[in-house]
Design goal:
Layout: H1 2-24, E1 35-36, E2 42-43, E3 50-52, E4 55-57, H2 60-65, E5 75-76, E6 97-99, E7 102-104, H3 107-112, E8 138-140, E9 143-145, E10 154-155, E11 161-163, E12 169-171, H4 179-193, H5 199-204, E13 217-219, H6 220-230, E14 235-236, E15 239-240, H7 241-252, E16 259-261, H8 262-270, H9 287-296, H10 316-323
Antiparallel strand pairs: 1-2, 3-4, 3-5, 6-7, 8-9, 10-11, 11-12, 13-16, 14-15
Protein name: EF-hand domain-containing protein
Signal peptide: 1-20
Organism: Aquimarina spongiae
Length: 344
């Protein structure tokens, strides 16, 4: 009788765990997100060296107890992981040509789209030479985009990179920001999620250096759609990503009028000394910066230029969610790193 009772209890626990994983994704409680170093590389900290399910754990046992069953590919040590290992690096057959971090039908389409890095079709070139190649480039609005012009002219105050002679942001990894790709990153969100992003912000989203004096707006309902997609699959102590998203959206709408603005979001976020509001359990590392990241893509945060470098401070699970509906190159190895699924 005692043996039968034990088997019954075990079966109930197993079924409960299976249902929880199917419905909510794994519970990231106890895990931490990757640390982004000065070179823009993401790796697990020494305290949680075991990487699995896009999060960092002390070991495989903790990962499994947290609901992560994909421990076969766990990586102890975590160093050298660029955060993009879960992305499909193959372009679809309809757009087989890979250049500038996107997929094109051919080199001509890539060049017509403002990508002049079309001589490399393997997606693994990395401009880390630091040379100043100002002889080429492609017009992009008022800018000249030259991915080879990586020499610093002006250092960015926060040390995240510098500006080159074309006035474009260059990351610490030697990747030049592409303003045209930045604008497409914002349009990706609008198109793929079916939401409305402020037209003035979209027009200026490729800004570099100085922050434009605008106050973009967005409906609360559209922002909630965006946040729910970002936090999909999160479950912390029974609280789902949808619940975190709803609470965060309500906290930003300080006057409860159903409209969010950049100024309103800044005021709400600034009311928290850590500037994370309710996302602290999710953004355990670089919390305030991670909050800026998610707001930046829809114009509710305007910081230093080069919007396309954002997302580097987000936990891996949130990064992967973002990469499913918009493009970004950080923290990939280079501008050609696949951080966007062109089939979605």
């Amino acid at each position: 009788m005692k043996r039968i009772l034990s088997l019954l209890i075990f079966s109930m626990l197993f079924l409960g765990a299976f249902v929880a994983c199917e419905n909510e994704g794994f519970d990231i409680n106890g895990s931490v997100s990757k640390v982004i170093d000065a070179q823009g590389k993401a790796s697990c900290p020494g305290s949680h060296p075991y990487e699995a399910c896009g999060a960092c754990w002390t070991d495989a046992a903790q990962a499994q107890s947290g609901g992560c069953t994909d421990t076969s590919g766990g990586n102890t040590g975590g160093s050298g992981n660029d955060g993009g290992n879960n992305q499909n690096n193959d372009c679809p057959s309809s757009h087989p040509f890979s250049a500038c971090g996107q997929c094109w039908t051919d080199a001509n389409q890539a060049q017509a789209g403002g990508c002049n890095d079309s001589g490399d079709n393997n997606g693994d070139g990395d401009n880390n030479g630091g040379g100043d190649n100002t002889g080429g480039g492609t017009p992009c609005g008022s800018f000249n985009y030259n991915p080879n012009n990586t020499a610093c002219v002006t250092t960015v105050a926060n040390g995240s990179g510098c500006m080159n002679s074309d006035g474009l942001f260059v990351s610490v990894r030697g990747v030049v920001s592409n303003p045209c790709n930045t604008k497409e990153a914002v349009l990706d969100i609008e198109r793929n999620l079916g939401i409305d992003i402020d037209d003035q912000f979209i027009e200026m989203s490729g800004y570099q250096g100085n922050v434009p004096s605008i106050n973009p707006t967005m409906t609360k309902s559209d922002f909630l759609i965006y946040m729910k997609e970002l936090l999909k699959g999160i479950n912390i102590n029974g609280k789902t990503g949808d619940q975190f998203a709803t609470e965060f959206t309500n906290l930003l709408d300080t006057n409860n009028d159903g409209i969010l603005t950049r100024n309103e979001a800044s005021q709400a976020k600034g009311s928290d000394p850590r500037q994370v509001l309710n996302l602290e359990p999710i953004f355990t590392i670089n919390g305030g910066l991670a909050t800026d990241d998610v707001l930046a893509y829809v114009g509710l945060y305007l910081g230093d230029g080069a919007l396309d470098k954002y997302a580097g401070d987000l936990p891996q699970l949130v990064q992967d969610n973002m990469a499913s509906f918009t493009r970004t190159w950080q923290p990939g190895v280079n501008a050609a790193s696949k951080r966007y699924d062109t089939r979605k």
